[in-house]
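ugh ok fine here u go
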Amino acid sequence: MKNPTCDIKFFEANIYHQRFGKKKHFFNNKTNAILVDLKENYKKMLKYPTFFSIDKINLISWVPSKHGNQSKSSTINDLYEFIKYLCKNKKTEKEEIYNIKLITFPRVLNFGFNPLSVYFCYNNKGSLIHSIFEVRNTFGDMHHYVLRNIDLKRITQKTSKKLFVSPFYPNKGSYKLYANYVKDMITISVEYSLKNKKVFTANMKLKEVKFNNLNILKAFVKFSIYPGKIWINIHLQALILWFKKITLFKIPPSEKVKHSFGIEVSKD
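structure:
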């Protein structure tokens, strides 16, 4: 039996970061992302562009084992089941998950770093019921912020910050997290607060384009993707902040609990 395949969509992404306070900082970045439908398709073999592969080195690629519990032997189905497991809550679970889609950054020439990936979980009617923010830092840690039982009119949830992400912020405070996928557009936002005061925001707007070799090559020509781009940009901005003499915080011990849940649904 041939290996199952899953639907992949290609997106152009604009990312905006803004730091508030006495020493403000702002930067934006253009890149590309892929949306992976984690429901494997056993009935038909889907054809991918020549320059894209799953679990193989190519111009751009995607590796399931780099997500979820990061097991080296993890398959697409393993990742699907892991995300379903994170959403489980017998007391509050209202609907069964029918499908899961993951928006993430592809690996480029087998090099990749995903500071943020988002899972969209749907019921059998196609309504968004849960979302999960998979956050990774440059020190090798990962945390899943699980937003359960989402109402489409109130899909922002507040969570306590659990993962040390940047040495320029303490491992305290809270996030307001938002993610939505409508037609060919995805919008994601992260608002970070300390002592109920907004200190940082990150926003990402993505628009679907055709997933073909031409658009992959265009991304290389326009330098929206190249090996290590996201990792390089993160460290470049960190260097700029260091030159601005912004306080550095010591890296704390890694958290033992690797996932947490939305604690408040906003009424926006």
